[in-house]
Specification:
The chain is of the alpha/beta class and 424 residues long. Helices cover 30% and strands 21% of the residues. The protein has a 10-stranded mixed β-sheet, sandwiched between helices. Strand 3 and strand 4 form a beta hairpin. The chain is globular and about 65 Å long. Bound molecules: guanosine-5'-diphosphate (GDP), 6-O-phosphoryl inosine monophosphate and magnesium ion. The site of guanosine-5'-diphosphate (GDP) has 21 residues, from helix 1 and strand 3.
């Protein structure tokens, strides 16, 4: 068996959670492979909204096992809150398994994140301040603490040594207020909830499950343009958000990768700083923000909005080997007379479909304008019944991107989805 992958092709918040929740019904196991509680995945079931940060979006499907892989970074405080909210809503959390090799976010990692961002001033990344960067720095710097350390007698000593190191480093940020004692007390209290979960060696677990014929889906967090290597560095997150990240983040070999579902909005958003060539920093952008309710699921920050960027999508489809596309938030374009799609970039007078080294350089996106459908498409469930303009828009995307659009999302609800091609 192969492990299928679902991930975001833009700057995050493409609607991954909703689509994973839909697909989870067809899988035995859903695995997060990277990122941490910087993610906010929204799932709307029977009108009730759930937001997940660390727990895979398969948790709402009874019988599905949910694995948090070694590539993920875990904040016990966020995890404990997530678990108790789910339980309060009657959701069974007993299927959740956590990799022993996943790294822990300490309160002092968040302190360093806050300090680093404050010291950057205008050049700040716009981090979610969840301690992600400093935790991955400790991972690659070979200083980090892992879930498996919780089972060892010297955990407290290791914790204290790392915290003390962080506190000395934090002295370079004298203006940042952080109540380490209160946060530390919360951290230790919340470890109890984490320790109740089953700890696994996810490489053996996932490979054995594949050998037994289990169907597995890897759920991406963030988006490919936030990838540490291939995103808009330095305005990125600190993990490998692309398909290659599945191999290291779960311990599976490249030849085990199966289908790759790429998720894109029908337009584009970005939260936090960094280049965004098709950004609409104007009334139209505000209109898109209001219609799409574009406010961060983790931080509540307004998301920046703009038109869909096809050179950008072509790039991330290439990076990920996407063979199934899902376009979300189709309904959010219902009222636009014309829909713009960036098809090339003009850089120094020359047109190209390739992304330059720095997306922050002077890029003039060149647009194709298509007629909008100007009607409510939310309740349509059959692609054949879609207005001609929707069909034209999708055909244009497929032609340009060279990948079939197999799913179209027409609202936040679980059932607001059209399956056009073959999925799962
Ligand atoms: P994720 O991080 O990729 O899982 O996406 P988020 O949950 O952060 O953001 C997507 C937002 O769009 C959430 O509020 C979803 O409920 C909502 N959403 C997802 N698909 C659709 C759609 O097709 N139409 C509309 N209107 N909202 C959607
Ligand atoms: P989901 O999984 C959108 C952005 C932050 C910031 C940059 C670095 O919900 O799509 P970090 O906290 O990692 O130091 O932030 O990345 N970012 C996201 N933007 N969706 C996310 O996750 C994001 N996770 C991080 O806004 O610009
Ligand atoms: Mg999100």
């Amino acid at each position: 068996m192969f492990i299928d992958v679902l991930l975001g092709l833009q700057w995050g918040d493409e609607g991954k959670g909703k689509i994973v929740d839909y697909l989870a019904d067809k899988y035995d196991i859903i695995c997060r492979f990277q990122g941490g509680p910087n993610a906010g995945h929204t799932i709307v079931i029977n009108g009730k909204k759930h937001v997940l940060h660390t727990i895979p979006s398969g948790v709402f499907r009874p019988g599905v096992i949910n694995v948090i892989g070694n590539g993920v970074v875990i904040d016990p405080i966020v995890m404990a809150r997530e678990l108790s909210t789910l339980k309060a809503n009657g959701i069974d959390t007993s299927s959740i398994k956590v990799a022993r090799k996943a790294h822990l976010i300490l309160p002092s990692h968040r302190f360093l994140d806050a300090g680093s961002e404050a010291s950057k001033g205008k050049a700040k990344i716009g981090s979610t301040l969840r301690g992600i960067g400093p935790t991955y720095m400790d991972k690659t710097g070979r200083n980090g603490l892992r879930i498996g350390d919780l089972e060892r007698p010297n955990f407290n000593a290791k914790y204290t040594a790392l915290k003390e190191k962080h506190l000395s480093l934090a002295k370079i940020y004298p203006d940042v207020d952080f109540d380490i004692e209160t946060e530390e007390a919360k951290f230790f209290e919340c470890l109890a909830a984490v320790k109740e979960l089953e700890f696994i060696d996810n490489s053996y677990y996932v490979n054995q499950a594949l050998n037994e014929g289990k169907r597995i889906l890897a759920e991406g967090a963030q988006g490919s343009m936030l990838d540490i290597d291939y995103g808009t560095y330095p305005y990125v997150t600190s993990s490998s958000t692309i398909t290659a990240g599945v191999c290291v983040g779960l311990g599976v070999a490249p030849q085990k990768i199966g289908k790759v579902y790429g998720i894109s909005k029908s337009y584009c958003t970005r939260v936090g700083s960094g280049p965004f060539p098709t950004e609409l920093d104007n009334d139209l952008g505000e209109e898109l923000r209001q219609i799409g309710a574009e406010f961060g699921a983790t931080t509540g920050r307004p998301r920046r909005t703009g038109w869909i960027d096809l050179p950008q999508l072509k790039y991330t489809i290439m990076l990920n080997g996407v063979n199934h596309l899902c376009i979300t938030k189709m309904d959010c374009l219902n009222t636009f007379k014309n829909i713009e799609l960036a098809t090339t970039y003009k850089i120094n007078g020359k047109e190209t479909q390739n992304l330059p080294y720095d997306l922050g350089e002077d890029i003039e996106p060149q647009y194709t304008s298509m007629k909008g459908w100007n009607q409510d498409i939310n309740s349509i469930r059959d692609f054949d019944e879609m207005p001609k303009e929707v069909k034209d828009y999708i055909a244009f995307l497929e032609e340009y991107l060279g990948v079939p659009v197999d799913m179209l999302s027409t609202g936040p609800g679980r059932e607001e989805l059209i399956i056009k091609g073959t999925v799962a």
